[in-house]
Design goal:
single chain, about 325 residues, alpha/beta, Rossmann fold, eight-stranded mixed beta sheet, four-stranded antiparallel beta sheet, 12 helices, about 25% strand
Length: about 325
Amino acid sequence: MEAQKENILEIKNLHTWFHTANGIVKSVDGVDISLKKGTTLGIVGESGSGKSVTALSVMGLLMGTRGKIEEGNIFLDGEDIVSLDKEKRRKLRGGKISMIFQEPMTSLNPIMTIGKQIVEGILEHQQISRKEAEKKALEMMKKTGVPRAEHMMKEYPFQLSGGQRQRVMIAMAMVCNPEILIADEPTTALDVTIQAQILDLMNQLKKETNSSILFITHDLGVVAEICDDVAVMYCGKVVESGDVRSIFFQPTHPYTKGLLASVPKLGVEADELESIPGNVPNPQELPKGCKFAPRCMFAEDKCRQEEPQLFDLGNGHLSRCWQSGGQL
């Protein structure tokens, strides 16, 4: 029997709200997520579910915005990083924890060469010479499969294709051997062939460095391919979580079932794909009770009046549903 892996990242009761002219938007409203060492955790859900805001909260990238962590803890290796000052946060980013963003063109500096951007990141976190940093940057570029790596080091982001830029982003994120890599929809803008190559590359680097990955996506096919565990989010909350097999083969929350039913299946003919009725509610006008109740065909009066807790179904499988928790 495999020993239980230790959690490297624990998000507990996280509330991240945005204070706007029209009122408070509760983008993340009581999230609990754990990432085990050496594993990949997928966070899935529709747009507006709070996936990316959760990641930005972990990275401390909401400073200077209208967003603020109102409550909760984020433990990295047992240390609560929520209250770290700006300088300590900056040291943490790129060192112990790195992030790959959805669109690399907006994440890379357009007026700096690729090589210089990677080298500056290394020098920020490691006490080595510029020459050693340049050598390390080139090695990581080659490891991530960037073609003509020596030549590419001297080029600018606009001279690279989308797939090449994403490889560069991975090289930048992994060059300092972070303990945690956060990937926010890193393959969305890429074609299927390049997407498969990027996923293989991330898996390979994870094994080589024994790092852990927080993988944010709306693509359940990607989750099935790369993730060990899954957390399904809806309206700023985790509605179901567990290992990838439990979520895919024994889903219990109606929202999770709806997401899985909407995925086309190989060899199964259908006139049209199933879809979840209705839309994600306005975050400033959330319904009473279960937030999914207005779209749920199984909802009863209790669902519309009382919000369910996360029920433990055993073996680490949790579900925020009165019915799956045996309360209806």
